[in-house]
Amino acid sequence: MNEAEILERIRAIFKENFAIEPERVTPDAHLFEDLDLDSIDAVDLAIKLQEMTGRRIKPEEFKSVRTVGDVIGAVESLLAAQG
C-alpha cells in the first residue's frame, strides 16, 4: 500500500467515523486544530488503523501523531513491520 492509497483509506475513515469531508483530510491537516478531533476520537482513529493494518498500535507510538501526515507515517511503519 503506497502513501496515496493510505491517504485514501484515512480519508474514508474520517468521513465514515467523524463526518469530516475528504478534501479537509490533507497530510498537513492537524488532527486536533484543523479537523477538530478530541482525545476520544484519537482512540477511535487508532482502533480503525489497527483494523486497517491488522497490527496493534502501541499507545506511545500514537502519542506523537499530530497531523494526517503523521498518521500516514504511523500506518507505513505498521505495514513495514508486517514484512
Q: Tell me how many strands there are.
A: 0
Strand content: under 5%
**General shape:** globular
Instruction: Please work out how many helical segments DSSP would assign.
Output: 4
- List segments where confidence is low: pLDDT < 50 over at least 5 consecutive residues: none
Largest sheet descriptor: none
CATH architecture: Orthogonal Bundle
The structural domain count equals: 1
Examine the coordinates and then state which fold CATH places here, giving the name of the CATH topology: Non-ribosomal Peptide Synthetase Peptidyl Carrier Protein, Chain A
Q: What's the alpha carbon Rg, rounded to whole Å?
A: 12 Å
CATH class identity: Mainly Alpha
- For this structure, the quaternary state is single chain
**Pattern of helices and strands:** HHHH
Q: Ends: how far apart?
A: 12 Å
Task: Give the helix level as a range of percent.
Answer: 55-70%
CATH superfamily: ACP-like
Mean pLDDT: 92
Class from helix and strand fractions: mainly alpha
Fill in the keyword field for this structure.
single chain, 83 residues, mainly alpha, Non-ribosomal Peptide Synthetase Peptidyl Carrier Protein, Chain A, 4 helices, lipid metabolism, fatty acid metabolism
Account of the 3D structure:
The chain has 83 residues and is mainly α. The protein has a single domain, classed as Non-ribosomal Peptide Synthetase Peptidyl Carrier Protein, Chain A (Orthogonal Bundle). Helices cover 60% and strands 0% of the residues. It has helices at 3-18, 39-53, 59-62, 68-82. Helix 1 (3-18) packs across helix 2 (39-53) and helix 1 (3-18) crosses helix 4.
